[in-house]
Write a structure and sequence with these properties.
With 90 residues, this protein is α+β, with helices and mostly antiparallel strands. It has helices at residues 58-63, 66-88, and strands at 13-18, 24-30, 33-40, 43-50. The protein has one domain (13-88). A hairpin with a 2-residue loop joins β2 (24-30) and β3 (33-40).
């Protein structure tokens, strides 16, 4: 169509998964960003990191240290509590 701009999107690719006993961790690369997706039950958290902010994909493993993951697990607990409280108000 006239006036329509073509958009080119880089397809999202899975860089890898990191084993963890409590949460599922998946790393993606998409549109010059790395996405760290954490999942626990029905909840998920996604962190986006610009490609130029890290020197290699190995830096992502450094970001996902025990402190970072413990905070995420606590956040999942808070998310579950918030949802439970909200559904009790129905």
């Amino acid at each position: 169509m006239i006036g329509e701009r073509k958009r080119t999107f880089e397809s999202m690719r899975v860089v890898g998964e990191i084993a963890h006993p409590e949460i599922k961790i998946t790393i993606f690369h998409w549109n010059n960003r790395y996405l760290i997706k954490l999942e626990a039950g029905p909840f998920e958290q996604t962190f986006k990191i610009e490609e130029y902010n890290i020197s290699s994909e190995d830096d992502i493993k450094e970001i996902l240290n025990e402190s970072f993951l413990q905070q995420a697990i606590e956040r999942f607990s808070d998310m579950a509590k918030s949802l439970q409280e909200a559904t009790l108000r129905l």
